[in-house]
Amino acid sequence: MKYCIYHSSYPVVFSSCGNLVSDNGFIHPKRNIDSFVLLLIRKGTLYITQDEDEYILHDNEFLILFPHTLHYGTRRSDGYLSYYWTHFYISDPSYQITDIFHYEDSLLPFQNILQVLQGHVVLPETGTVSSAGHSQLLFLQLMDIACREHYKDTYKCHYGLSLLLLEFCSESLSAFILQDMDIPPRLSECIDWIQLHYNQPLTASDIANRFNYNPAYLTSLFKKYTGYSLTHYINHARISAAKNLLTNQDQTIEAIAKQCGFTDTKYFYRIFKKEEHITPSEYRNAFHHKKLVL
């Protein structure tokens, strides 16, 4: 897989962004353009080919289309499709599109390669981001900024997109970094399980029993490898999911709290304020003027 590498001191140059929505039968046009394009699938399946490599992208998966490289839709989508997109340029004159695992013929572990590239942004050509993570939220924020700036390429848009790409870099490479840290396989399974079941009633004791850990030992492992206690990690996963849901004006805050695993709305408010330093209502209001470009 190819990676785009550029120095973080250079902000990317925003061109445009939006949200494509199709009820059925969408096929991406055949193009060879001079800008980068980031696609993030919200719902549905996109069939697309870049440089003769075919990709089938599903929910929460992304693809970066490289400049001066032919890309086109392989087949029409089946049913509903929605994805975020943004066109941009990289201002770093020394940016590279390369296979990072052969970067300067290095045989170093992945984490050591990233240390060599410290200060750089490393963007995989394709990957997956968490539905409960920050990337999707920052994409919404970028579209909100672009709308308020009347879709001009302002510095707010440039730096908003730069932040989005930094988060994509962090989220998409985290799996490689954890793998290189020799995280215990059972703990890795536990982390993945929590990410999938955060909306269910969870306690440290129940999770420890499920994965055959002593509760105190499991908490110490979480602290070592994630920086959070087990209870804090569960709440963090729930709040991350709630932040994405709060951008939807149709659901009540009480319903969102319940959907994310909080049985007590007052407790949800308290944890949210502790994590984000604002209330859920204040957070939602920040996206009140969000407008998607179709």
Automatic annotation (TrEMBL):
<protein>
    <submittedName>
        <fullName>Arabinose operon regulatory protein</fullName>
    </submittedName>
</protein>
<dbReference type="GO" id="GO:0043565">
    <property type="term" value="F:sequence-specific DNA binding"/>
</dbReference>
<dbReference type="InterPro" id="IPR009057">
    <property type="entry name" value="Homeodomain-like_sf"/>
</dbReference>
<keyword id="KW-0804">Transcription</keyword>
<keyword id="KW-0805">Transcription regulation</keyword>
<dbReference type="InterPro" id="IPR020449">
    <property type="entry name" value="Tscrpt_reg_AraC-type_HTH"/>
</dbReference>
<dbReference type="InterPro" id="IPR037923">
    <property type="entry name" value="HTH-like"/>
</dbReference>
<dbReference type="Pfam" id="PF12833">
    <property type="entry name" value="HTH_18"/>
</dbReference>
<dbReference type="Pfam" id="PF02311">
    <property type="entry name" value="AraC_binding"/>
</dbReference>
<keyword id="KW-0238">DNA-binding</keyword>
<dbReference type="InterPro" id="IPR003313">
    <property type="entry name" value="AraC-bd"/>
</dbReference>
<feature type="domain" description="HTH araC/xylS-type">
    <location>
        <begin position="188"/>
        <end position="286"/>
    </location>
</feature>
<dbReference type="GO" id="GO:0003700">
    <property type="term" value="F:DNA-binding transcription factor activity"/>
</dbReference>
<dbReference type="InterPro" id="IPR018060">
    <property type="entry name" value="HTH_AraC"/>
</dbReference>
